[in-house]
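TA notes, week 10

Several of you asked for a full example with nothing omitted. So below is the full record: structure tokens for the whole chain, then the designed sequence directly under it. When grading your own attempts, check the secondary structure regions first.
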């Protein structure tokens, strides 16, 4: 098959589906729809769902842990994948350009400086963390 001059062949579906950009955009959509972005002494990213293999794949690729939820959703067991700390911060930074519903929450979480165990927190840092937690709660309740 010859391709007309000046035209590039369309990418094969397998090429597009395997790209990191597509997976990153997909994961951002998954986080927007099923996820929780929060901060409680550290950054937290959690996705709950009834399809354990998807959550296990996220765990294998990005780390974290998958655990069963106590509640059952429509007679089906539910699971959560959770990522915390520096890994959660790194993944939220990667997802940020693609997030829509959880973008403001991710920006708030990323605005908290990384914790330092070698010094005490200043009053300004403490006030900022308290304000971030208040705004995150407010955003979660506004969305429901």
């Amino acid at each position: 098959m010859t391709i007309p001059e000046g035209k590039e062949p369309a990418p094969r579906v397998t090429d597009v589906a395997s790209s990191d950009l597509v997976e990153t955009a997909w994961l951002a959509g998954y986080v927007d729809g099923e996820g929780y972005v929060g901060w409680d002494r550290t950054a937290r990213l959690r996705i709950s769902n009834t399809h354990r293999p998807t959550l296990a794949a996220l765990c294998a690729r990005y780390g974290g842990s998958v655990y069963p939820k106590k509640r059952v959703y429509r007679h089906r067991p539910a699971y959560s994948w959770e990522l915390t700390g520096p890994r959660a911060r790194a993944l939220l930074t990667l997802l940020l350009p693609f997030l829509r519903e959880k973008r403001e929450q991710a920006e708030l979480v990323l605005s908290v400086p990384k914790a330092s165990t070698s010094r005490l927190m200043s009053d300004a840092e403490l006030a900022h963390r308290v304000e971030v937690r208040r705004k995150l709660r407010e955003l979660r309740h506004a969305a429901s």
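Residues 108 and 131 are 9 Å apart (CA to CA). Use that as a sanity check on your answer.
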